[in-house]
Amino acid sequence: MDKSITDKKLTSPQKEQLLEMYKQMVMIRRFEETANELYMQGKIPSTLHLYIGQEAVAVGVSAPLKKDDYVLSTHRPHGHSLAKGVSPGAIMAELFGKRTGSCKGKGGSMHVGDMNVGVLPAIAIVGGNAPLAAGAALAFKLQKSDRVAICYFGDGAANEGAWHESMNAAAIYNLPVIFVCENNLYGASTSFKTVFNIDNIAQRAPAYGMPGVVVDGNDVVAVFQAAYDAVERARQGNGPTLIECMTYRQCGHSRSDPRTYRSKEEEETWKLKDPIMMLRRHLLENGISNETQLGILEQEVENEIKEAITFAESSPEPLPDDVYTDVFA
Ligand SMILES: Cc1ncc(C[n+]2csc(CCOP(=O)(O)OP(=O)(O)O)c2C)c(N)n1
Ligand SMILES: [Mg+2]
Questions:
Q1: Contact 23, 293 (CB under 8 A)
Q2: Per residue in 49-108, pLDDT tens?
Q3: What is the pLDDT of residue 143?
Q4: Angle formed by the axes of helices 161-172 and 129-142, to 10°?
Q5: Which of 54, 126, 186, 259 for a ligand 1 pocket mutation test, highest count of atoms within 8 Å of Cβ?
Q6: Contact between 218 and 278 (Cβ < 8 Å)
Q7: pLDDT the model gives residue 13
Q8: Positions of the chain with pLDDT lower than 70, given as ranges
Q9: For residue 179, what are the β-bridge partners?
Q10: In angstroms, what is the span from residue 188 Cα to ligand 1's centroid?
């Protein structure tokens, strides 16, 4: 068993919360595996950037959030959106380009979002969501609310100029924003090691005047605890935090990626640290749950995904005139 998840300190979330986290992680995994199959059958246009292997980050970060907190996502948004409460049906319909999709079928995979649950339509420009996250957090501060904004980003985004400006602005204005780095070791085919002369991206946080922490991004409880601390800090008016979650995307970058830039051994090593498998083992070995109970949760997920597909397939296509709506705010 992985040491980090057996650590006494990390067992603090209550049973119900752990089971909910387990179900959400299975939902994200199975949703994407199913979406991938549908994509291969030609039912989903455009492309898909899958989140498989990184589920613990979205679920651990979302657990301490309230409905009206904001999440600003990336080109890899399905997990972030599901974890924050966008319905599987609305996301599936969006992937299908249907009128009932979360963005009325106009955005597709890379722009999934639903303002009703605090998920801004995702931004696929690498690093492009960072200024918007800082801006949303500035609005929350001026409104004297205790809401927070989450800015998800990859290792690749941390070398974009907009990211640095946003980190600095968030620090000097003491904004309630949490920068959540999903360091999956690659920006497309570029290895993290070849474009950073530091060991961790979190090392950059003190240079801007904010705390930076590194966590095992495949350990949902570790992610949850770091997120909980950062969210509380932000709500109390103590400003931004950078959380770097060390993780791995088990699939290719997008649909057409032969993954020749990394070794099969590396992939196998990370599969042994699969976040869902780790939590499942933790729940069983510590007597928190049992096979029957987890099996019921897994079956519930399968049923919800079937409903999502039926909803997406039976939904209407957008009308030609829809092109003129939602253009200007
Ligand atoms: C500004 C910009 N440059 C390039 C791209 C093309 N692109 C899309 S995703 C990606 C890699 C991003 O890597 P990272 O930030 O580590 O996120 P990950 O894909 O690993 O989740 C690139 C280069 C883009 N969308 N935006
Ligand atoms: Mg990356």
A1: no
A2: 999 999 999 999 999 999 999 999 999 999 999 999 999 999 999 999 999 999 999 999
A3: 98
A4: 20
A5: 126
A6: yes
A7: 84
A8: 1-11
A9: 151, 242
A10: 6
What 3 state SS string does the chain have?
CCHHHHCHHHHCCCHHHHHHHHHHHHHHHHHHHHHHHHHHCCCCCCCCCCCCCCHHHHHHHHCCCCCCCEEECCCCCHHHHHHHCCCHHHHHHHHHCCCCCCCCCCCCHHHCCEHHHCEECCCCCCCCHHHHHHHHHHHHHHCCCCCCEEEEEEHHHHHCHHHHHHHHHHHHCCCCEEEEEEECCEECCEEHHHHCCCCCHHHHHHHHCCCEEEEECCCHHHHHHHHHHHHHHHHCCCCCEEEEEECCCCCCCCCCCCCCCCCHHHHHHHHCCCHHHHHHHHHHHCCCCCHHHHHHHHHHHHHHHHHHHHHHHHCCCCCHHHHHCCCCC
In whole angstroms, give the CA distance from residue 192 to residue 157. Answer: 11
For 247, the token pair is: 């993780």
Quick check: pTM over 0.85? yes
User: Residue 317: CA atoms inside 13 Å, Cβ hemisphere, count?
Assistant: 6
Of the candidates 128, 20, 152, 134, the residue with the CA atom closest to the CA atom of residue 77: 152
Strand partners, 72: 120, 151
Output the pLDDT for position 1: 34
Q: Are 275 and 22 in contact (CB under 8 A)?
A: no
Sign of the CA dihedral with 220 first, then 222, 223, and 229 last = positive
Please report the atom of ligand 1 found closest to the CA of residue 128.
1
- Distance from the alpha carbon of residue 201 to the mean position of ligand 2, in angstroms: 12
Nearest partner of 132 among 92, 154, 163, judged by Cα: 163
| Ligand 1 nearest-atom number relative to CA 127 | 1
Cβ of 126 closer than 6 Å to ligand 1, yes or no, is yes
